[in-house]
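Reopening this ticket.

The earlier resolution said the output was attached, but the attachment link was broken on my side. Pasting everything inline this time so it's all in one place.
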Amino acid sequence: MKLLVIEDETDLAKSITGYLADYACETAATYAEALEKVETYEYDCILLDIMLPGGDGIKILEAFKALNRQDGVIIISARNSLDDKVKGLKTGADDYLAKPFHLSELAARIHSVIRRKNFSNTDVIVQQELKVDLLSKKVTVHGYEIPLTKSEFDLLLYLMGNKNRVISKSALAEHLSGDIADMLDSHSFVYAHIKNLRKKLGEAGYGNYLKNVYGTGYRWED
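Inline output:
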């Protein structure tokens, strides 16, 4: 799962990314940097401070929604007025958390937003013989646990969260590597993760839901 932390307070940004180490976290500290990232890359959830050097975070949210993007957005702000909350939620944010906050609460809200947007508000995804527990991060096939690496687990969730959609190799590379994907010479690591994931699930007897789409990418079928 990939997050974008838009926050100009360096220490707070480090605390958030450190606490959320199970996620692939990217950061942006200015209005211009944040706007470029939300317009270029996709995320499972964006944490958005609305007071940024160079501009108002609400404008970023407006530009983001104008692109008809579905990434989850949680506003984190020292401005705790009712008007700010209403404006942020009406503009399209999924949640609003006032500073200061406990990192455990932030993590719970991120999980809730991702669960609601990608997995129909459930903590356990079941597809015939395959079961994925989002909280324990356990994957089982026919009741037997399948040991997946973090990248393989993230890849599986990304594919299942985009069920029946063709996902390009470049989109998978971006999801697994973040904004450094453009600097990589090839997508060989994507092939490797796909191969390993398919091998582990296949050996356990899953229903072969992961399909190659020739010349394009991959599709997870229901």
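Reporter confirms the inline version is readable. The helical segments are 10-19, 31-40, 57-66, 82-91, 103-118, 150-161, 169-177, 188-204. DSSP finds eight helices and 14 strands in the chain.
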